[in-house]
Amino acid sequence: MTSITRRTLIAGGSAAGAAALAAPALAQARIEWRMVTSWPKNLPGPGMTAERLARRIGEMSDGRLTVRVHAAGEIVSGLEVLDAVRGGAADAGHTASFYWQGKHPATVFFTTMPFGLTPTEHMAWIEHGGGQALWDELYAGFEVKPFMAGNPGFNMGGWFVRPIRTLDDVRGLRLRVAGTGGEVYRRLGATPVTTPVAEILPALQSGMIDGAEFLGPQSDLASGFYRIARYYHHPGFNKPNGTGELIVSLAAWNALPAALKAVVENAARAENAYSLAEAELMNARALAALKEKDIELVRFPGDVMAAARSAAGDIVREIAARDDLSGRIAQSYADARTVLAPWSEVSVQSFLDARQPD
Questions:
Q1: To pair with 92 at 20 to 30 A between CA atoms, which of 61, 163, 283, 303?
Q2: Is residue 187 domain-shared with residue 73, that is, in the same domain?
C-alpha cells in the first residue's frame, strides 16, 4: 500500500496548482496562422470570402486565433495551395477541391461535378448525407482537414469569342476550364487549358484561348472577360455548384484546443452560408450590368448538352472505378442526387416554372 506523507501531499498539491495555472494560460495562448489562397486579392466572390473568413475566425476567437491572408502569387501560385499547406509553408488555404484532381480524381466531387448537385443539394450531402466523412478520409492522405467555406452559387457556362450554336462549334476550341468539365470538353473535341485566375484575361487577349469559364456574373464582371469574349453562355452544366474549401494542415488542426476547433468549424459554416446568400444578389446585379454592355447571352444548344451529359456520365463511372475510396465517394454523391433531385424538381423547378408569366 502506498503511504501518503505530508511532504507528498504538499508536493502533489503544488504540482496540481501549477497544472491548474498552466491550463488556462495554454488555453489563452495566441496563435497566428498563415493562409494562402487561389484567388487574386479581394476578388469579388472567393477572394472576399477568404478575407471575411479570416476576420470571422479572429473575432469569434476573441483574437486567440488570427489568420493572415495571402492572395495567389504572394507566397505560392493559386494552383499550389494544397502543396503549400501540406508542406508547411502555410497553416491553411482557401481554394477549391477540383484543382487537385491530378492528385486524386475524386477530389472534384467536393467542389462540383457536371450535371451534379446544386449548391443547396451539395450542402445537404456534405452536412447530412455522409459527404464530410468521406472528404475527411480523402484529405487525410494530403495531411489536411477540409471544410466548406464559401460558395459563389451557380456558375455560368463561360465566355466565348465565337458563339456555340452546334456541337461542331466546340471542336478545335482552346478553353480555360476547371474541374471535370475540362475532360467533358476534351471528349467533345475541345482542348482544355488549366490557367490560374489572374492569367485568364491575358490569355483571352492574346488569343491563347478561345473561351473561358470561371464563376458567375459577379466574379466574371470584375474579371473583365466581357471585354474580349462577348458571348456569355448558359447553363453552367459543368459547374452547377461552386463550393470553396478551407483546408487546414493536420498539424495545425490537431494543435488547437477544442474551443478553437469549434471556432474554425463554425466560422467556415457561417461564411459558407453568408457567401451563398451574397452570391444570389450580387450575381443578379452583375448580370443586369453585363446586359448593358456589348454581350450576348447564349443558351448552349441541345446537341452540346446531350453530348456533354453522356461524357459526364462516362467520366463519373471511370473515376468510381479507380479505387475503393473513389467508388464510395462517387456512390455517395450519386445516392444524394437520386434522393434530392425529385424534391428539387417539384419544389424549386416547379415553382420557378409557375412564377413565369404566361
A1: 283
A2: no
